[in-house]
Design a protein that fits this description.
391 residues; three-stranded antiparallel β-sheet; mainly alpha
Length: 391
């Protein structure tokens, strides 16, 4: 059934209220470390802190989130101060002497885990780009640009000396890097010259659609060889539906900027193919991992239902419907929306659960941890709200 304007108004209000009255207040109340700086992310169901280690990409994501809201929604001084609180901590403690971003720190900011993970750098660049805009901070602007340059220099060997695989036997590259670089480059457009910007986007598009895409099934593999081959091994068969779908809304943002209708349609086809494969017809929800050939996945958590997978899918489906008008996008949106809003929000203590078992029961009652922070839920609520207003 075609949605009405009243449906979009209702959905916009639902997402706005959840963001402004539930999710943001939870993080503002419970995550701020007033003694040592930065943010706590390991939060129990009620917001109590259960671990004080600080994971750099979650610190950076929270800086980005509050900076983004300040820049794009409303210039609330509270949001700017919250962003500054994390940015100051990261600037002081987050990097090694070469400007590479650590993976984790202790509460006081002493490094715990080496900068093996380039995604810390990616989210730091995003964070300081948005924060530089919000605070008119020239040093933050230069830090974002320098971090982006280092990411581009490291992209062919992202783990560097911390790579644990033996070279040459089975070289594999990961979808995660070109997908995040597509989003990161769009975020940093205001800092990049046109040639750097367009070349980076073109390379991301080439990799995603040429190397990682199964052109017959229209699904994205998580790891392939540098030539785009999909080896018949655990790693080569991994499908991560959430990554594939999230990558497609990044691609749709590029397509919308370039007014490329064919790219929009292609991205939507990949989303729908991925959902057809990844939806659990027995219990509902989207599987976390799958094996491309239907073999038992190596990930023991393969059948869990995760918060970010469903939230990013809702964003992708709304964008897909707005840009292409395909009814199938809307039908899937209503289906995923019903599952997501039934299972993930916690009306008693606020914010959303992150981890459900296959049956949709809460597996871990935490609201934040090593991987879940103040990012996917609020970002997706904001983006869904904006998409509904546009519609």
């Amino acid at each position: 059934m075609q949605p009405t304007n009243m449906r979009f108004i209702e959905l916009a209000q639902t997402h706005q209220q959840a963001l402004m009255d539930d999710v943001l207040p939870f993080w503002q109340e419970h995550s701020i470390d007033t003694q040592c700086g930065g943010y706590f992310t390991c939060l129990e169901r009620d917001g109590a802190v259960f671990d004080t280690d600080k994971f750099v990409w979650l610190q950076a994501r929270q800086v980005w989130l509050f900076s983004m809201l300040y820049n794009r929604h409303e210039k609330r001084e509270t949001w700017l101060k919250l962003a500054q609180h994390g940015a100051d901590f990261l600037r002081q403690h987050g990097m090694d002497t070469q400007g590479r971003w650590y993976f984790s720190l202790n509460r006081e900011g002493r490094p715990l885990v080496q900068p093996y993970n380039i995604f810390s750098d990616c989210f730091a660049a995003m964070a300081f780009s948005q924060y530089a805009l919000a605070a008119n901070d020239g040093a933050a602007k230069q830090l974002a640009k320098r971090t982006y340059r280092q990411i581009m220099q490291r992209q062919n060997n992202p783990k560097g000396p911390y790579n644990k695989t033996v070279p040459h036997t089975r070289p594999l590259i990961s979808l995660a890097l070109p997908m995040i670089l597509a989003n990161l480059t769009m975020e940093l457009e205001w800092l990049l010259d046109a040639n750097t910007f367009n070349h980076a986007l073109d390379d991301c598009l080439r990799q995603v659609f040429t190397l990682f895409l199964d052109k017959d099934r229209l699904i994205l593999h998580e790891q392939v060889t540098p030539e785009g081959e999909k080896p018949d091994c655990f790693e080569g068969r991994v499908i991560n539906p959430g990554h594939g779908i999230e990558a497609m809304w990044f691609i749709m943002d590029i397509a919308e900027r370039r007014q490329d209708r064919a790219m929009m349609e292609k991205a939507v086809k990949v989303i729908l193919s991925t959902l057809a494969l990844g939806w659990d017809e027995q219990f509902g929800g989207i599987f976390y991992f799958l094996d491309a050939q239907g073999h038992p996945p190596q990930q023991l958590e393969w059948d869990q239902k995760l918060w970010w997978v469903h939230m990013e899918t809702l964003v992708a489906l709304l964008k897909g419907y707005r840009l292409t008008g395909r009814q199938t996008c809307w039908d899937w949106y209503e289906r995923v929306h019903a599952y997501t809003w039934e299972h993930f929000p916690d009306p008693e203590y606020g914010e959303w659960y992150g981890y459900l078992n296959r049956r949709g029961e809460v597996l871990l009652p935490l609201k934040g941890g090593k991987w879940k922070g103040c990012f996917h839920v609020p970002r997706s609520l904001y983006l869904c709200w904006q998409e509904c207003e546009k519609l």
